[in-house]
């Protein structure tokens, strides 16, 4: 692998694992609509490390999307600050990548051109772009589909292309907003395995929002529970079932500990 590509692919490893990537201090958010106010978030304090895979669970309306939009820089908090690697973060920034529920690829660009797009924006040279695109296409298992247009791919393949596009620019962290919720159950499980393997290989800091307790238990290294009125974090703990890559989902799902944790999480969400 050429030296330049090596440095781009491995840039995240320049930061020691375990070092905070992002810190949220005293974040609150109040939506004001005419005379009505909604306190969507209150007193959010959070620190995510370089190799965290955090799943955020909580009932509808507890502020998960608001929190993600603030971290993405799409929304300004009413109070509080966010820092990325110690620097104030207050607007969309290539250091924080986002994968949405719908892959929103550029429909007129081939899959490889979609992945290359962010690299062009970063002014990465042509040869290096080519190698990075090939690397990330392979990482998400789309190496045979580079020349196709998005409409020629299945929903799961499009979402993998969107993940590759975000990974290719090597952000410090990636926010994923229910990225598999529009997929059928079988594709969803395949995608969960894919994402877990990608995280295991890249050790990228991931913040993943989901409504699905099983999904959180199968994927997360750390689980955060939120509650509404106002939206706040009520629990934040390491997933005791953190899976080894070779462990089958079906095996983990059938374990008594899995069912116990599932009941615990459902109780926490609905308490
Ligand atoms: N643009 C907005 N203007 C006013 N209120 C909003 C806006 N967006 C969200 N809210 C309110 O803020 C609170 C949190 O909403 P948010 O969408 O962040 O929750 P959520 O946990 O992501 O919900 P869901 O799981 O249903 O997607 C809710 O009471 C919601 O009605």
TrEMBL record:
SMART domains: AAA (SM00382). InterPro entries: AAA+_ATPase, ABC_transporter-like_ATP-bd, ABC_transporter-like_CS, ABC_transporter_ATP-bind, P-loop_NTPase. It comes from the Bacteria. Residues 22-253 form the ABC transporter domain. One of its GO terms (molecular function) is ATP hydrolysis activity. PROSITE patterns: ABC_TRANSPORTER_1 (PS00211), ABC_TRANSPORTER_2 (PS50893). Keywords: ATP-binding, Nucleotide-binding, Transport. This is Taurine import ATP-binding protein TauB. It comes from Sporomusa termitida.
